[in-house]
Design a protein that fits this description.
Blueprint (H helix, E strand, L loop, with lengths): L1 H9 L5 E5 L2 E5 L3 E7 L3 E5 L2 H7 L7 E2 L4 E4 L6 H16 L2
Antiparallel strand pairs: 1-2, 2-3, 3-4, 4-6, 5-6
Helix pairs in contact: 1-3, 2-3
Length: about 100
């Protein structure tokens, strides 16, 4: 989780942090991405637009409209998470 936090913060110097809905939340002109530690997976919550844009990149993972489930027993796809966060940064900067 610390590695993921660092990756997210490196995506823009303007990102701030807070806890929202009991999750680590990163903010840039509104909510940017969230993540949460669950019993069997890490939940990464970028937005429905990011899930749609990258869904072909994570066919091996469970996902829903706005959430990607990353099981602890698989390698963490840090570069994919970086790309999804950068996608969200670009979306939020347009606001």
């Amino acid at each position: 989780m610390e590695t993921l936090r660092q990756i997210i913060l490196e995506c823009s110097p303007d990102i701030t942090e807070k806890i929202s809905w009991g999750m680590a939340t990163f903010v840039l002109n509104g909510n940017l991405v969230h993540f949460s530690g669950e019993k069997r997976h890490l939940g990464f919550h970028p937005s429905p637009s990011a899930i749609e844009a990258f869904k072909d990149s994570f066919a091996d993972y469970k996902y829903s409209k706005g959430t990607l489930q990353l099981p602890y027993d698989k390698p963490m796809p840090y570069e994919l998470l970086r790309q999804m966060t950068l996608f969200r940064v670009q979306e939020q900067k347009k606001k």
